[in-house]
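Internal ticket - ligand job 346, fe (iii) ion:
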Amino acid sequence: MYKFTLNILSAAIALSVVAGAHAEDKELNIYSARHYQTDDALYGDFTKRTGIKINRIEADDNALLERLKTEGKNSPADIILMVDAARLWRAQIEGLFQPVKSKVLAARIPAHLQGNDAGQGPQWYGFSTRARVIVYNKTTVKPEDVATYEALAEPKNKGKVCTRSGSHPYMLSLIGSLVERDGEKATEEWARGMVSNFARPPRGGDTDQIHGVASGECGVALTNSYYYVRMMRSTKPEDRQAINKLGFVWPNQKTSGTHVNVAGGGVAKNAPHREAAVQFLEYLAGDSAQRNFSDGNNEWPAVPTVATHNPALDSLGKFKSEKLSIATIGKNQIVAQKILDRAGYK
Ligand code: FE
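stdout (structure tokens):
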């Protein structure tokens, strides 16, 4: 009888220790490669709701990956946030995430926007989406000549095309999707066509390509959708002037659909605050965080039931998006890079 009571007592103590450990998760360490100012509101709101303080390390993706690898088992990282499937997949194959099973995330985030699930739960989740779109100069280019990604590589667009470096994740993912749809051989021909159509060697970021089109140096360019919408919402006179010169195309509407990518994240492999980390991922899938991605950074919520309140973004209308697993696109970046090297696409 005495022994029985003691066992109950020690079980109760053990339970309270476990509960105590969770309650002590009052901070969360986030390693983020997102580079969008509007994320401040997101983190502040999480702290207000949960009392969990967020420590942020922000750097570009390569620096973060190197840091995580160097820190190894001793890394204080709880959450890793990356933009683009190409980067999420790289972090995944480096073994930097741990699988997370969550009823909330499973119910909210569509399956094709989740990192691979080997039965233990996905390694990462996409929380917002963005499209890779085409912008053109209304004076020098006709929209029907630049209606698809494939058309940009056709001879009719010689001397008109601008892109950022082919090796940037935004381009690697797009090319990874072309490989999946059109095959390796056709994509290599596409890459060669792009190189011979360049108005200038690849340089700068997506916003630089938009400005290049507005100035007339480029006839047509590729950009992530949120950079274009950011310029639509800008009150700077030079941005207003630029946007008036531009036309906008949802690529591949009559064929495969527009390439859509994600920004997302997961729980770090050796997260010291796992409980709080899962809580944070679930918070990102909640209505208010989802709205922040669209209203703040001009992306779309990954959760299909969340409505946007962003007139500029909404004015672009609905479009047909590509239906490929985002994890497959991430994986294809290896073959995409080899194609670029062979085609001389820097
Ligand atoms: Fe970006």
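Auto-summary: Confidence is low (pLDDT under 50) at residues 1-21. The chain has two domains: 25-128+261-312, 130-259+321-343.
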